[in-house]
Amino acid sequence: MTIQWAIPSYRRPKICAEATVSTLISSGVNPENITVYLSDPEETDEYQKELHNTGVSVHEGKAGVAHNRKHIQHSYPVGTQLVCCDDDLTGILTKSNDGKKLEPLHFKLTDLAEGAFQRAKEAGAGMWGIYAAQNAMFMSHTETAGLRYIIASFFGTTTVDQDVARDEFLESSGEDFMTSILSFLRYGCTYRLDWATVKTKYFAEGGIDSELTERGIKRQDDHTQALRRIEQMYPDLAKTYTKANGVTNIRFKKFTGFKNPRPDNTYLPE
Known about the structure:
The chain is α/β, with parallel strands linked by helices. The protein has one domain (about 5-260): Alpha-Beta Complex (Spore Coat Polysaccharide Biosynthesis Protein SpsA, Chain A), CATH 3.90.550. It has seven helices and 13 strands. The chain has helices at about 15-25, 45-50, 65-75, 110-125, 175-185, 205-215, 220-235, and strands at about 5-10, 35-40, 55-60, 80-85, 90-95, 100-105, 125-130, 140-145, 155, 190-200, 240, 250, 255-260. Strands 1, 2, 3, 4, 5, 6, 7, 8, 9, 10 and 13 form an eleven-stranded mixed β-sheet that branches. β5 and β6 (about 100-105) form a beta hairpin. The longest helix is centred in the middle third of the chain and has 15 residues, at about 110-125. It is globular, with a radius of gyration of 18 Å.
């Protein structure tokens, strides 16, 4: 089955073209399988101008990042292997052999996605993702099936399911925490590649920041309120805490079904 690649985007036409689209194409993804979904259709001409030589499609999505992600998941037939990426992705990093640093992925993103879909299916998971923190010391050379946070920056899903992509929670901040919990409850586990992380800048201008600023809402306040709401909804699974930089975050209850070793040495440099 051909993997489809979707990019929700808002107020970032140039970044989307030079970051995510360039990264995907240079890493083996066929541009005919890449679609950018716009939260604001009035930006269509600007995005098409930036992407006109790439072969990537530009479609109208839904206003609001969370609404747009839900729209994307329901824009493909059930069973489609879909990878969804942030619009400012500049690469995937991996934990080095010695575990002390991060280094660029040494194989194609298409190979990463194909393998992740296969192993997630074997685990019974409806969703797979990568490690959220860009810190090799917190990562490991394993893949985990259980209750794990699947960050929205780069994840794959196979079964489009109303129980996971539903209207109960549509705040853009915290939507990926909520989706991770719903996918765990629906399938019994999520599947995470603990050895891979995204190369991007969190809380960057554009995207959710622009969406909220235009509505007169502070990103940090919205983020905190959304995560505390999740904690109230699922107190047995999630607990908020404040990081050293003052940003609110969530810890999930640690449920591990099993761990797999990182795949064979084709995933590691010589």
